[in-house]
Amino acid sequence: MKKLLSFSLIALSCLLMFACGGDVVTWSGVENKTINVGDTFDAKAGVKAEDKVDGDISDRITVDGYVNANAKGDYKLTYKVTGSDSKEYKKERTISVAEGSSGNATTITIMHGAVQEVDPFHASYSGKNAREKQLKQREVEALYNVKVVYKPYDQSASWGEPRTTAIVNASINGTPMADIYWVSSDWIGKLVKGQAVVPVDDWMSTHGSNINEIFEKIGGYQDQMYAFETGAPYAEIGLYYNAALVKTLGVSNPTQMYLDGNWTWSTFESWAKSVKSALGEEQYALGGAYSAWAEALVPLNGGRLVSLEAKRVAFAQQAALDAYDYITGLKDAGLFEPSGTFDSGSAAWQAGNVVMHPGRLWFVTAPDRWGQLPFQVEYVPYPISDTYKAGGGEHISPVSGVSTYTVASGLPEGKAELAFKVWNALQLWKSAEDGLEEFTDVLKARFNEQTSITAFLSVYDKIYLDVMNALGISAYESNGWTVNIIAGIREGIARTKMDEIKPAYELALKTYLGEA
After folding, report:
1. What is residue 359's three-state secondary structure?
2. CA dihedral of residues 491, 495, 496, 498 (deg, nearest 10)
3. Which of 131, 134, 361, 492 is least crowded, fewest Cβ atoms below 10 Å from its Cβ?
């Protein structure tokens, strides 16, 4: 009797387990599916797993793969769950994203030069907080009945003049390329004059209250605000040096000199001369284009290139002229490499034969700038002039060409405001404290020395807007400031060069200010 009972229990158990060894899990809701671009898609919605012993175990399901509902294509998803028999069960499905209508939702198109940096659903998304941003986007889409689409600029509108021309022409033709454009703040004047963008002043209090007030200047043109961004720009320009070479030469650490309050034009010149005397042949103390040095050193002598506050072209005034003379003196002392270049630097800098080079923070890791340098780069701010410091002057850096967003003109009634509202709602706004913490983490990833981080944090927010490049005169045309100051310092005739181009800039500034 006991044996019969034991056999019956085993039989019952096997029956419950589907004949001993059969699958205990069944799936539902995992059929292949087609959705339209911009549709909301939840990978677990409607998907169920039933266990013959434990019942509904859908809460145990995990999903491998993802679906970019903003990009056409076929996406594979693999669903996994562990049954009561400790076996893992899998089910695969394909979600096809196709072009098509998405109900009555309004499409908000954001055009960007590097979509992979901002679209959290992009297959190669390189930004942070992907999942959080994905959830935020779906929440915003549902709240405002919109679908958000990120669209890259066409290759024919790569940057600068081609891009602004494409935006203006699209507006003229009544076919805006997008609802929101990602642009440089230097282009605002041209876009406004081309009637390609609209002001956002009327919406700032209702939708844009998180936008830093500094964009009233950066994104402003003739007393109206057109461009905006999250956070605030910072002073990323500075002097970057070959840390290993500085140690090998046995000279003073320049960042420590700055932190000790001993970093003026006179001490900098003495330091650079000591570097030169310790270097070998075909090695140089200073590198880069003279214009980069001048752009930074003029304000550190109390001057400006173009003063928006004073509504004045100031690059030919005495404070600026003294800065040019100082740089010319460094050149005449043989401290500069003979063929300094912009951004990525000369072959000598790339090979580690130039000690110090002007640059920007993002150069440090950019693969087409300094990301492949065979040496560690550290940072020090530009030196301040002795007279300016003695008069109580503080460190300050110009900012220009800030990456911003604008709202397109020519949109259907009410859509411009909706686009601005949606853009603001999509952002993961941070407090000033959180923003500083995040920025500090960036610096820690760039530099090995704490001194560099400390020095950077001491000046990063000391900035002013310079509109030199926003006046419509190309830096490299015959009367452009950049080419003329390079030639002026090289030939020792900076004052003459500045006087020659000043009238053109004065007229351009009046036009920019709406006074001509």
Report:
1. strand
2. 110
3. 131
Please list the residues that pair with 152 across neighbouring strands: 112
Of the pLDDT bands very low, low, confident and very high (cuts 50, 70, 90), residue 271 is very high
Helix (H) or strand (E) holding 180: strand 180-184
For the chain, the straight-line distance linking the first and the last C-alpha, in angstroms and rounded, comes to 111
Range with top average pLDDT, 66-75, 95-104, 286-295: 286-295
Instruction: Tell me the average pLDDT of the chain.
Output: 92
Alpha-carbon distances, residue 170 vs 139, 160, 402 (angstroms): 31, 16, 23
Q: What is the DSSP letter of 252?
A: P
Locate 75 and state its tokens.
């996406």
Helices (H), 85-148: 130-144
For the chain, give the percent of residues with pLDDT over 70.
95
Distance (Å, rounded) from C-alpha 108 to C-alpha 414? 12
Angle between helices 481-491 and 494-513 (to 10 degrees): 170
Q: Which residue has the tokens 């963008």?
A: 197
How far apart CA 4 and CA 10 sit, in angstroms, is 10
- Residue 357: Cβ-neighbour burial (10 angstroms; 0-12, 13-18, 19+): buried
For residue 14, pLDDT over 80 is answered with no
CB 71 within 8 A of CB 123: yes
**Interatomic CA distance for residues 301 and 373, integer angstroms:** 32
- Exposure of 324 in the CB half-sphere (CA atoms within 13 A): 28
Three-point CA angle 300, 502, 187, nearest 5°: 75
Q: Is the dihedral of CA 174, 175, 180, 181 positive or negative?
A: negative
The number of C-alpha atoms within 13 Å of 203 and in the hemisphere containing its C-beta is 22
For the segment 33-91, what is each residue's pLDDT rounded down to a tens digit? 988 876 778 899 999 999 999 999 999 999 998 888 777 788 999 999 999 999 999 99
